Amino acid sequence: MSTDLQIRKMTTRDIPAGMRLKDLEGWNQTEKDWMRLLQLESATCFVAVRDGEVCGTVAALRYGRHVGWIGMVLVDPRFRNQGIGKRLLDHGLSYLDSQGVETIKLDATPMGHSLYLSRGFSDEYEIERWDGIAVPQKKTAIQQMEPEDIRRVCDRDARLFGADRSRLLAALWQEAPEFTAVAYSGREVTGYFFGRVGRRAHYLGPWVAAGNSELAGQLLMEFLNRASGERIFVDICMKHPDAKSILERIGFSRQRTLMRMYRGPNKHPGEPSMICSISGPELG
Predict the structure, then answer these.
(1) Residues 261, 215: contact at Cβ < 8 Å?
(2) Rg (CA), the chain
(3) Residues 149 and 91 in one domain
(4) pTM reported for the whole predicted model
(5) Nearest CA to 216 among 233, 197, 232, 237?
(6) Which residues of 29-48 are buried (b: 16+ CB within 10 A; e: fewer)?
(7) What is the reported pLDDT for 2?
(8) Using an 8 Å Cβ cutoff, are 217 and 137 in contact?
(9) Do 176 and 242 belong together in one domain?
(10) pLDDT tens sequence across 24-83
């Protein structure tokens, strides 16, 4: 490997390069997804540069002190097998360690799984990506999320995810409030979803229904009504007892498998059995 490899912070000027690398992998992120990562106070992205060309990326997010997240580990195919992915991963891990993060997590593809094992990560649970077309469903009574709902949703999410993602969730709501919804029992949040437009498909996640299969189905129907006619990606948590069967019933199909992994004590695992789908492999 050339010794002139440089790893530096990513800037908005690097977004076209990030999009190029992402497109080479066929991933679903948009320019807005990169911009969100660069603008979140709790996120830092890095690029690997060789001979003046961006050849790799990594994103490191902090959800308070409990959980850090590694995502967007990308290397140009022309530069693979040169240790660049390992250096980017180690850089992201070192950054999160320097911030005092207790446990670091990521969602591993089969190709990256052995690398993460070598860096001290352990398997937590499987995630499956499912996709299908949003066919209009029976009308539901579930309402769009409003500004006054955000704090309660974030408080509920922190308990179920295991860490505070309020900055991320607020950003997702601000970008696409029409693809959010919340359900209550009295004043208690019992379910919610966030969605966004992707490069290849609309994305549903997080999609949460706390131990209620009927509510999980109603939330999904509401999202499909709002995204009618669009292709949908959803990454389901295999700890949830009903998400897979709900998607099977509406004709969605499994696309690929990921592995949620962690490094550290994992003292705050949340309640994954309550989470139908994650926020995205780059977000947790």
Answers:
(1) no
(2) 18
(3) no
(4) 0.96
(5) 237
(6) bbebbbebbbebebbbbbbb
(7) 47
(8) no
(9) yes
(10) 999 999 999 999 999 999 999 999 999 999 999 999 999 999 999 999 999 999 999 999
Residue 171 has which token pair? 């950003």
- CB atoms inside a 10 Å sphere around CB 138: 8
Answer whether residue 284 is part of any domain. Answer: no
| Range of the structural domain that residue 208 is part of | 128-277
Q: Are residues 152 and 265 in the same domain?
A: yes
Among 101, 117, 144, the domain boundary falls at 101
Say how far apart CA 229 and CA 262 lie, in whole Å. 37
Tell me the two tokens of residue 116: 């993460």
Cα 104 from Cα 263, distance rounded (Å) = 5
Tokens of 56: 């790799």
Query: Can you state the angle between helices 15-25 and 31-39, rounded to 10 degrees?
Result: 130
The token duo for 149 is 């709902």
- Domain harbouring 55, CATH code: 3.40.630.30
CB contact burial 76-88 (16+ within 10 A = b; e otherwise): beebeebebbebb
At 238-250, the pLDDT tens digits run 999 999 999 999 9
DSSP string, 215-241: HHHHHHHHHHHHTTTSEEEEEEETTSS
Angle ∠(107,112,159) on CA atoms, nearest 5:
15
Q: What is the pLDDT of residues 185-220, one digit of tens each?
A: 999 999 999 999 999 999 999 999 987 899 999 999
**pLDDT grade for 4, boundaries at 50, 70 and 90:** confident
Residue 186 identity: G
Q: Are residues 61 and 166 in the same domain?
A: no
Is the residue at 120 inside a domain? no
Total domain count, the chain: 2
CATH code for the domain in which residue 241 is found: 3.40.630.90
